[in-house]
Amino acid sequence: MHHEHRTPGPIEKLIGSGPDPSLDATFVPHRYEPNYAYPLLVLLHGRGGDEQQLVDAMPTMSWRNYVGLGLRGPEPLTRGGQPSGFDWGPMFRHPRRRPGPQWDEVDPAEVVSRVLTYGLADPYDAIEDALFSAVRRTRRALHVHSERIFLVGIGEGAALAYRIGLSNPDRFAGVVALNGWIPRGFRPLRRWEDCRSLRVLALQSLWNARSPIEDARKDVALLRNAGIRVTSRAYESARSITPAMLSDVDSWLIDQCTADLP
User: Which parts of the sequence are annotated with region: Disordered (predicted)?
Assistant: First the structure.
């Protein structure tokens, strides 16, 4: 495992490995070695972010250890009539913020937009399909270790990481949730026996208004009671992501990648 922090030359990024170059961004490790199988981090931004949010944070974590794949949420946001990033949809918002839309709360234009975007399919299925497709493209382009693919998310992106990871525990090595939560609307422990091979890192800011620490602790307790190995840590901060968090993510990932896989 490469583990060296220093100031390299300009970062190499492959923007747009998919059909639409605006939908994902790829972080290529400094001095990429084609013969080495790198861990892949699937990076899922928070509400108002985009595919670059966590890709841009990769150098703070490590220049050399991982391939990073940043994906964009399907729903554009606006603030004051101006574009303001993207979102993964109401199903991934914190339960306290939106316990579930009622029909009289739904904007008809939003319903039409969803039908035009997804057809009549479940929006989650479309997101999951797009994620798996992006992972396949990245694996064709770069040398990725098939058993070291991790989901890394912030806020709503962490909620998505939880859902995809717990729903497909055989396809991922672990989930990293930064100020995240387990979303409602699915059975997180439906595959609990398989999920016991999944590793989870849950990092939480003590004063993050969008993700109360008491709720995060309940989610961690739920997973631990099911026999899932969870590492959790709290930080005296209100920010959704800090350099200390990224350093701890790097250390945890190295531990997972150097340990004997079950």
Answer: 1-22
